[in-house]
Amino acid sequence: MFSKLIYRNSKRSRKENLIYFATLVTAVASFYIILSLGRQDVVLFLKEFESDAIDKLLSLMPIVYLFALFLLFFLILFANQYQLNRRSKEFGLYLMLGMRKKRLVLQLVAEGLMTSILALISGILIGGFLAEIISLTVSKLVGQGIIGHQISLSVSAIFFTIIGFLSIQLIALVILGGRLFNQEVHQLLNEQTDKKQDMGYFKGNILNMLVGTILLGVAYWIVLYRFMDFAGMLVFVALALGSLGTIFFMEGFGKLLGLLASLSQRKSTKGLHTFTLRQFQENVANKSTSVAVTSILITLSIILITNGASTIISFESINNRSSSVYDFTVNGDNQKVKQFLTTEKIAPYVEDLNLLEIGRMKYQDEYEDLPLSLVDWSKLREQIIMDLPSNYKEQILSGEIQGYSITSENPESLNLLGVLEIDAAKPYLIPESSYNGLLEAIGEKPLKLHSNEIALYFNPDFVPMDNLESMPVLDNILEKAAKEGESLISINDQEVFIHSSTPMRGLVADRSVEIYSAFIVPDQMFKQLLNTENYRSYWNFRIPQKLQNEQGLMKPMMEARDLLKSSGFKFESYLQNFGRRLFYVVAGSYTILYMGFLFLIIACTVLALQFLTQMKQTGGRYLTLSMLGAQRNQMKKSMHKQVLLTFLLPMSLACMSGAVGIRAMISFVIIHIEDNALLYPMAFTFACVVIVIFVIYGVAVARSADHEIDKLRWKPNID
Questions:
Q1: Residue 703 CB coordination number (10 Å)
Q2: What's the gap between Cα 196 and its chain centre?
Q3: Other C-beta atoms within 10 Å of 380: how many?
Q4: For residue 228, what is the enclosing H or E element?
Q5: For 307, what's the count of Cα atoms within 13 Å in the CB-facing half-sphere?
Q6: How far is the CA of 641 from the CAs of 276, 327, 699, 705, in angstroms?
Q7: CA nearest 519: which of 572, 510, 528?
Q8: Most C-beta atoms within 10 A of its C-beta, which of 47, 230, 605, 636?
Q9: What ranges make up the beta strands (E) of 336-463?
């Protein structure tokens, strides 16, 4: 009999409080997803190249998991307190009928554990399914054959999800059971009533709103204009001021909501207008701190979701090989490496084999222990300076600018000047034949340099370029010089002309050559000007396209990598570059999006339960309205407006604060979006996701409240 009572009550509680049960299922699913991260295809793939970084990322997951458990514990405590208040009279009747308090507490704990077990089963099944969908989606989106998909089930994730979730649920139930045990029968029978309204004084409420507005304004100013001061420490000050400002603003605004009712006397008797505003005022004024906290959580959620979404956009750039040409770079003794790469066992994996030679230009002489450069590029420097925007030109000519930063925010001419200031005096040299091999691999026409002609190379991995085929500012300068027959540079007192419109590509597969610029020179000039002490050579090759079409890129690259490992030669692969960038995307999106959606769900659940709690406590007012002639559909419309206002108030302030935070993070490149064309579609998509979640919770609350109104059966003709 007792077990049947537990089962029946547990089933009824889930039905009446579906919002809370759905939130528990969502939380369990999210726990499994974050704990099973180590089993996802993309992470298993990254372990091949970034094992240390992946291990550090996975070591953070328990911290994220514990923090999520900490937040969920308070949500469970709050929700179960709502359930306790809701069933207060029922528990009192049990005690009057002879049930002992210990048995009543045991019943409460058993019902909660039964609900928890069902939530665990549902959540783990949903979480496992979503984890597979996420893994498969990432594999398809990023890999295109690079990352294979294998169905996996993480036993450890299931175990820790069960242990953690049941632990916080049990602790919360024990705490609430203790409160129930200490209450007397008459207290339970009379139910919990809300404290008397304290609307304060008009001047005090105005002062609270004013203080809140000022604190929010100061927080916004810090975020927008002093974001990186003191190594970003002022952000925490802004967060504290913004949180306090939100609390003060909500407290003052909530207590002044009654003015809206008094200022609209014309509508006060139409559609329960005054009643709706008074109910809304009471809900906000009584719970102003919790409403403010939900607004803060929504703000953090908006910022975190936007930050995570910005990294998702970089999936496109990760898979973009516009500047990368080669799949492997091998270095070692030239003849031995070439001999190995042409052997029968590895030759099927080798296409576009090319020797890259590179080294610094030698010096003319030394003067007072300082080397003298062979290069005079003063004319080219003058032309670039003349092309600068006026404000930069004045600073450079006056000597105010002592150093250069190479960024995409700079004008092209400023980046050009900065790069050449770094390298032009002692440039790297690349022989024409080496770079022609690279151009032929990408289907471009080879260079045909004259004996007194060179080409300028700029590494697209370090120098921002909108167009890899040309640099407009430099091309204009060179075309003008060519028309006038003017040489802009000289080497060893010999005039040298510069070839224009040279396509720029990465020289190697990954990181073995990290240079900003170089001179591409005829082979004979390379031999004459090369400083042999820093000469280096690399063999580059690509996986044949036919092999990629048959097997995908991943399998042949892994097979070629294993063969190179057995050879003993030092080498690097494009997958190292790909894996490194992919790791930043994974690390920057998974956990951030997880916390963002967790904050959002918690905030929505708190708002929902708070509204339903207030409706339960003020249920007698709806009976009074029906006695005064109000119809059930009128009360439902009033309640729907209350739900809308209850959700819109914290959301509105959160959107304003979130927009300020996002704007600041974009300005300081914390949120970086390379493709501005994707900015607005991305923002709209994730805004729709947030709105949909709010709508789902709002509709669920409205339906639950409708159910409560439908229970009003004291008057036969209430409809």
A1: 12
A2: 44
A3: 23
A4: none
A5: 26
A6: 7, 61, 12, 12
A7: 528
A8: 605
A9: 351-360, 365-367, 370-372, 375-376, 428-431, 453-458
DSSP H/E element including 140: none
Give the DSSP H/E element, type plus range, for residue 576.
helix 574-617
Which run of H or of E encompasses 498? strand 494-499
Ranges of the chain whose pLDDT falls below 50:
144, 193-194, 268-269, 368, 717-718
Contact present, 326 and 540 (Cβ < 8 Å): yes
Q: What are φ and ψ of residue 516, in 5° steps?
A: -85, -45
Beta-carbon count within 10 A of 66 CB:
10
pLDDT on residue 151: 64
Q: Is 495:487 a contact under the CB 8 Å cutoff? A: yes
Closest CA to 686 of 697, 694, 698, 675: 694
What's residue 144's pLDDT? 45
Residues 6+ apart with CB under 8 A from 491: 374, 375, 376, 454, 529
The pLDDT score that the predictor gives to residue 260 is 62
* Residue 189 confidence (pLDDT): 63
The confidence score (pLDDT) of residue 435 equals 95
String of b and e for 556-583 (b: at least 16 CB within 10 Å)?
bbebbbeebeebebebbbbbbbbbbebb
Residue carrying the six token digits 């984890």: 131
Per the confidence metrics, is the pTM higher than 0.70? yes
Contact, 374 vs 364, CB < 8 A? yes
- Tell me, what's the pLDDT at 457? 94
pLDDT of residue 562: 87
